[in-house]
Amino acid sequence: MKDRVADDLTSPTTPTIPINDLNMFEAHQPRFSLEELRQVLWERNDLKTKLMEVEEE
Fold first, then answer.
1. Helix or strand holding residue 13 (H, E)
2. Cα 17–19–24 angle (5° rounding)?
3. What is the domain range of residue 24?
4. Considering its fold, how many domains does the chain have in total?
5. Cα–Cα distances in Å, from 49 out to 1, 6, 11, 42, 46?
6. Quick one: which H or E segment has residue 29?
7. 17 near 25, Cβ under 8 Å?
8. pTM for this structure?
9. Can you give the pLDDT of all 57 residues of the chain as single tens digits?
10. Contact yes or no for 42/49 (Cβ under 8 A)
11. Helical (H) or strand (E) element with 16
């Protein structure tokens, strides 16, 4: 059992990702979910509308 655990630790089943590849991988990952992005855009548009209304007064 001890040897099997040691073998599992020394030979991972998933390959490790080099640092350069990891940076490329993270660059293509979304920072926000689609729902979070929609909410942020909705709030931005709402604030822009309110600002325009205040500027007109």
1. none
2. 85
3. 2-56
4. 1
5. 67, 62, 58, 11, 5
6. none
7. yes
8. 0.49
9. 556 555 655 655 656 656 666 666 667 777 889 999 999 999 999 999 999 999 998
10. no
11. none
